[in-house]
Design goal:
By secondary structure, the chain is of the alpha/beta class. It is 36% helix and 21% strand. It has 11 helices and 9 strands. The strands form 2 sheets. Strands 5-4-3-6-7-9-8 form a 7-stranded mixed β-sheet, with helices on both faces. A two-stranded antiparallel ribbon has the order 1-2. The two termini are 22 Å apart.
């Protein structure tokens, strides 16, 4: 089987996930044949393929439950999800009363699946492509959704840092969005739910936040008493050991001038010493 054909062999099933009283439906890739699996892994080794949008990840479920217990932060906001994958967090945010919701991903095929997930849930969530660190892609997003320049912007990202090289790209995109939004920067909020993967540790994330002069607070998901851990653990795709390592970062402002992403690339070589696999 050629590497180009494994996607054509992939079959999807609808997965139902409960978040409190809300049910979310997403398409999830079924098990591939052995040949298709090897073809996919071979393609991933060339860093040309992402599979993040083909299943639910621990971070997406954890952030969705966090939003359930902090629904007040959604009211009156323009919500933008980065690296949305299935779009689960955006769909939950809309169900909980968020204003305009935009779910973005850098993979065209993932965005198509995302659109189908939005249709399944009958929610008014916009699905759009966005490549981190790409000025043209960023400007196209702002042109299509001028509401992102509103006084209250909420950015969501869950389980997106599974390659070390993504850290500066993500923070560069967040900086651009915060800088483009009107009003005081203190009115903007970035919620990052991180699960350590491929040696992308919490220390690496926190060092990058400090280097970018972001102000943040951090809390382990297991220490947030309002979250129903028992309900989250019902999903077999999201193992308990991952939940126990999951943290929520509330990034509320930028102190002074942000550091250009190029500085992060050149100054933190350790970011690129770990495997880029998920």
């Amino acid at each position: 089987m050629s590497e180009a054909n494994w996607r054509q062999c992939a079959e999807y099933e609808v997965k139902e996930v409960s978040v409190g009283m809300h049910n979310v439906f997403v398409y999830q890739m079924c098990e591939l044949s052995l040949d298709a699996m090897f073809a996919m892994l071979s393609e991933m080794d060339t860093e040309q393929t992402e599979i993040s949008g083909t299943r639910i990840w621990t971070g997406s479920l954890a952030l969705s439950h966090y939003l359930l217990t902090h629904a007040d932060i959604l009211r009156g906001t323009c919500t933008l999800e980065l690296g949305a994958g299935t779009g689960m967090c955006s769909i939950v945010a809309k169900k909980l009363g968020a204003g305009m919701c935009i779910a973005t991903d850098g993979d065209d095929q993932v965005v198509q699946i995302l659109k189908e997930n939005v249709r399944l849930n009958e929610e008014s969530v916009h699905a759009h492509i966005l490549s981190w660190g790409d000025a043209k892609s960023h400007n196209q997003l702002l042109a299509q959704f001028p509401g992102l320049k509103s006084n209250s912007t909420l950015i969501l990202a869950a389980d997106v840092l599974y390659k070390a090289m993504l850290i500066p790209l993500l923070l560069d995109s967040v900086t651009k969005i915060f800088d483009d939004a009107s009003g005081a920067k203190q009115s903007h909020l970035f919620l990052l739910c991180h699960v350590p993967r491929a040696q992308v540790s919490h220390d690496m994330v926190e060092n990058a936040l400090k280097a970018s002069r972001f102000e943040y607070s951090v809390q382990s998901i297991r220490d947030i008493h309002d979250i129903n851990l028992e309900e989250m653990l019902k999903l077999e795709e999201c193992p308990k050991e991952e939940y126990l390592q999951t943290k929520i970062y509330r990034i509320t402002a930028i102190s002074g001038d942000s550091v250009d992403s190029g500085v992060l690339f050149s100054g933190t070589k350790e970011y690129f010493s770990s495997p880029c696999t998920r």
